[in-house]
Specification:
Blueprint: E1 8-16, E2 19-26, E3 36-45, H1 48-56, E4 77-78, E5 82-90, E6 102-105, E7 108-109, E8 129-130, E9 144-147, E10 151-153, H2 160-163, H3 166-178, E11 187-190, H4 194-205, E12 211-214, H5 218-226, E13 231-233, H6 240-247, E14 253-258, H7 263-272, E15 273-281, H8 293-297, E16 302-305, H9 313-322, E17 332-336, H10 341-351, E18 358-362
Parallel strand pairs: 11-12, 11-14, 12-13, 14-15, 15-16, 17-18
Antiparallel strand pairs: 1-2, 1-4, 3-5, 3-9, 3-18, 5-6, 6-10, 7-8
Helix pairs in contact: 3-4, 3-9, 6-7
The structure holds zinc ion.
Zinc ion binds near residues 110, 114, 125, 126 and 127.
């Protein structure tokens, strides 16, 4: 990045494990390339992925000597991939947004050339990356550039705060969308964190009338109920398999969504799904898990993975919010200024995660 006039902007950048700094970096240069836009991010969620980078990274963030294949960048780089903002400038050929428009950002990057992209499955790209994790700026800098296809116009009725929730909501939406869930099905959701809550809201939006959530933290069970779960189970004090059986007329759940990514949850979930039911893995795992294959063999159960979201999922979530089928505002539990991201954002989520769903970085707040 360079700037002819030497202007600088604030950016929250990842330098290494437990090392996030508010830096001054050169402002993006004047003039935007054809097919690109310049926008001013306004709100940006802190994601579980960001926390994993902070606590145990760099994992996804490219390190010196190993630049990301699409951006060519390595750390230090700007973080934040769940963001909304206002368009400042558009390049030639960009017609779906104009300066002044409120937008949210689909941050995924793909190469359009690999075996998955050639089949249209860009979310499974061999070179996949994210704005805000792989380079090309991100949601925690005052001005950033993005491919025009990444920005989605927000209707007037959706605030910029809620716009920053659309990325995590799209993850849950996509999981339900490509799962075998159909009208009348029951659903078991493992984990009541931000992604579990996104899955719950996607299920509610599709009219699911039997959503059962298993979650160890009391506050998170309350959040699950607030967003539409019909039954919540504390797996530390209740038998998950027996409870799900009794809540599904003795059949077992039709579909399960693992948003927890822990061994004990998968073990009970597989047994809680009906014969020929499917357990959908949405969680990103920190280590290898084991599956009891005979739980699948003798009940003809299926296990499938889902990754991020697909083209059209952001638009579907925007439509669900605009029409009132999804009301995600309550997911925002705190807003912090750019100079408080490490202290009041990351540390709060690490030390007090059960009381928070989404902490947003508020780029409209002045920096001390
Ligand atoms: Zn690809």
């Amino acid at each position: 990045m360079s700037s002819e006039n030497g202007a600088t902007i604030n950016a929250v950048r990842f330098h290494g494990q437990r090392d996030i700094r508010l830096d001054r970096i050169p402002a993006p240069p004047a003039g935007v390339k054809p097919g690109w836009v310049k926008l001013a991010p306004k709100f940006c969620g802190i994601c579980g992925t960001d926390l994993h980078e902070y606590l145990g990274g760099a994992n996804l963030i490219p390190t010196p000597g190993h630049p990301h294949p699409l951006t060519g960048e390595t750390l230090p780089l700007t973080i934040g991939h769940e963001f909304s903002g206002v368009i400042e400038e558009v390049g030639d050929g960009v017609t779906h947004v104009q300066p002044g428009d409120k937008v949210c950002v689909q941050p995924t990057l793909w190469d359009d050339d690999c075996r998955s992209c050639k089949r249209g499955m860009v979310n499974c790209c061999d070179s996949n990356g994210f704005l805000g994790l792989s380079g090309w700026g991100g949601g925690m800098q005052e001005t950033t550039l993005a491919p025009a296809t990444a920005v989605k116009k927000l209707p007037d009725s959706i605030s910029l705060e809620v716009g920053a929730l659309i990325e995590p909501l799209a993850v849950g939406w996509h999981a339900v969308d490509i799962s075998p869930f159909k009208d009348g099905d029951s659903a078991l959701v493992l984990g009541g964190g931000p992604i579990g809550l996104s899955v719950i809201q996607a299920l509610v939006s599709r009219g699911c009338t039997n959503i059962i959530v298993s979650e160890v933290a009391t506050r998170r069970r309350d959040f699950a109920k607030q967003f539409g779960a019909h039954h919540v189970i504390d797996p530390t004090s209740s038998d998950v398999v027996a409870t799900v059986e009794s809540l599904t007329g003795g059949l077992g759940a039709d579909v399960g969504y693992d948003c927890a990514g822990v061994q004990v949850a998968v073990d009970s979930a597989l047994k809680s799904i009906k014969a020929r039911g499917t357990l959908v893995n949405v969680a990103v795992w920190e280590k290898k898990a084991s599956l009891n294959m005979n739980d699948m063999v003798f009940r003809e159960r299926a296990y499938m993975g889902v990754a991020t979201y697909y083209l059209g999922d952001f638009e579907a979530v925007i439509d669900a919010i605009e029409s009132g089928r999804m009301k995600p505002e309550g997911m925002i539990t705190k807003k912090v200024a750019m100079d408080k991201v490490a202290e009041e954002g990351f540390k709060t989520l690490i030390e007090d995660k059960d009381n928070h769903v989404k902490i947003l970085v508020d780029l409209t707040q002045p920096v001390a």
